[in-house]
Amino acid sequence: MEDHTDDRTLDSQHALAFAEHIISTLREPFVVLDKSLRVRTANAAFYRDFHASKDDTEGRFIYELGNGQWDIPRLRALLAQILSNSHPVEDFEVEHDFPALGRRSMLLNARRFPPGGDDADLVLLAIEDDTDRKRAEAAVRSSERRQRFILESIPQKLATARPNGDVDYFNPQWAEFTGLTFDQIRDWGWKQVIHPDDLAEHVRAWRHSITTGERFEFESRFRRADGEYRWHVSRAVPMRDEAGGVVMWVGSNTDVHDIKRAEIARTDSEVRFRRLFESAQDGILILDAGTGKVIDANPFMTALLGYPHDEFVGKELWEIGLFRDIDESRAAYRELQEKGYVRYENLPLESRSGHKVEVEFVSNVYAEGQHQVVQCNVRDITERSRLQRQVKEQAAALADLDRRKDEFLATLAHELRNPLAPIRNSLQIMKLPRVDAATVERSRNVIERQVQQMVRLVDDLMDVSRIVQGKVELRTERVELATVVARAVETARPIIDAKGHDLAITIPTESLPLEADVVRLAQVVGNLLTNAAKYTEPGGRIRLSARRDGDEAVLRVTDTGIGIAPDMLPKVFDLFVQVDPIATRSQGGLGIGLMLVKNLVGLHGGTVEAHSGGLGAGSEFVVRLPLMSPGRVQPEVSDAGERPNEPHPGRRLLVVDDNVDAAESLATLLGLGGHEVRVAHGGTDALAVATDYRPEMVFLDIGMPGMDGYEVARRLRTLPGLGRAVLVALTGWGSPDDRRRTTEAGFDHHLVKPVEPAVLAALLAGSPRRT
């Protein structure tokens, strides 16, 4: 307020006029009061702003203006202060109700006028309407309270930051979550709660947003007060001024830990599913339940049917070989839609290349989100089905083998009883008194023939055992096929003659040399001839022929016998197979002869085939053998055999066998040959007898109880005077392994029971070489 007076003291009138002149020039509301606090005058601004008139104002007490709601005590104290001294009062705040305006908030500024005079009786009162400002401030305060309430009520952790990124506010949720105070977190202190693995990338993203002003969003883990890290999504947006500059950042941090864990679990589950889907060793198809078309197929499925993955997708089942045609495919799919489940134990499929496979097909309908899908599991059971069929076939074969084994045992018992009956009868005849010499000779011949028959049976059984175990060894030499045939015919001649068969033999005059085991090959041809004789009615025809065919010798044995049924032809060479069990029992046979033929021919590098026109049409067996090449000519084996030397009388012999009959009969036979013979029936007795007797040759059984023949042989070698004795093993076992064991035990010879008398004579007459 300008001072337009000088230092003179003005009288009351002059002072009032001067004051009225001054306030009339001012824009702010002014009133002039006298000492009694009555209004002397007011300027136009007062009347305008407070909607007052001179009549309602001049001459009235200041506290009577308006509705009389002035704070009278405070106002009087204010004016009294003004009048009592010259100090002005600044911004005295009061409120008052005006008729036209209502309640107003005002700031009063008062001073005495004229200033500096003790006799001044006027007060200049400036009135500033502060209502709008006060209301604005109140609104701001109310807004701030509401905003703070909101910030502190929201569950998210909220923060604000200055444009440079320094955080200047955190709501209480932050302090509660982290256990840190605002001072510990403010500015960039929040970095301490970020997981170390997330910190660098989080800060980098935040600095990028500060630099560019772009929206900030990042996922990271925050450490809770108890030390647990929880996933949060942090977002911040810039608040800009009118010029577009960033004035502050407003951000939130939302706990998404449970959602994140669920997402991670779902992702892990999807990864596991995809890994299983891709690596499954069953075919998997995913179909749209509505259309039935393929949505996805795993690699096993595509490999199984030979379609690339892209060609699977969008196709129906019938288009990829799962069903034979459209109708069948759609019928199967309708069944699936009705039941929600379809299973085929064995579904034949065809791959794109035409390859046949068998599968087990199972499909289920299930919900995948809002959609229905079908999962088809396709298991390749081609190999399993093959094995199952094979097992069934093997089971049938085993059952058949078991049946044939039973038949074999029954036939074996029959074959063994057959020779025993004439042997027993012949022995009984020989015991009768007054039997003439011719009858005794016939009985002896019967016994000899029947024993030979039993020997052949046992030899065949032993041969089967060796073949099954792979222990047959051939002693090959150069031999003419004619020689083999001659030996075989000699063997089979008795049964052929006994049945009155017509045997015709056609052998070429040219040489047909073979590298063969003459004994084994003669056994082959003899078995074929014997077989033909057994299964041909008396008086039938048997033809044996041989010829050269390139570098092979071809031998045929043909008969007019009972023939072979077509279903039996592939089986005739199997073990224990008998073409006609009834005929077999009547004719004799163990069902092992042809098995021996096939295997012995195979050992010689040849083949054998069976042919027949059926039952009653006879049979033909064709043997093919490789001829010996000209560059491999060897001396032919002599057919005459070794002619035994004359027995050497006077040898000291010891027979050791726990079988008393066997030991005594062999001792008698050797004694009749002019030798001195002692007998022992056990290992201990043998050692005791040998110590004093000192035999030149010992016939020693192997399978004795207590001390077996191997141990007896070893001990005999240690006795004085027996180092050069000839030890002969007598045993029912004749395999190469058995012969090796007797050699290791110190034996000089190995003879298989029963021993031919001619072999004994040759052994006694010859040198003590290994046999």
UniProtKB/TrEMBL annotation:
Q: Record's Pfam families?
A: HATPase_c, HisKA, PAS_3, PAS_4, PAS_8, Response_reg
Record bears the keyword RNA-binding: no
Keywords carried by this UniProt record = Kinase, Membrane, Phosphoprotein, Transferase, Two-component regulatory system
Can you state which reaction this protein catalyses?
ATP + protein L-histidine = ADP + protein N-phospho-L-histidine
Q: Where would I find the Histidine kinase domain in this sequence?
A: 411-629
Which enzyme class? transferase
Every PAC domain range = 216-268
GO terms (molecular function) for this protein are: phosphorelay sensor kinase activity
Q: What is its EC number?
A: 2.7.13.3
- Return the Gene3D superfamilies for the record: 1.10.287.130, 3.40.50.2300, Histidine kinase-like ATPase, C-terminal domain, PAS domain
Q: List each copy of the PAS domain by range.
A: 143-213, 269-340
Q: Which residues form the Response regulatory domain?
A: 652-768
**Which residues in this protein are found as 4-aspartylphosphate?**
D701
Is Membrane included in the keywords of this UniProt record?
Answer: yes
Name of the molecule in the record = histidine kinase
Q: Which organism is it from?
A: Frigoriglobus tundricola
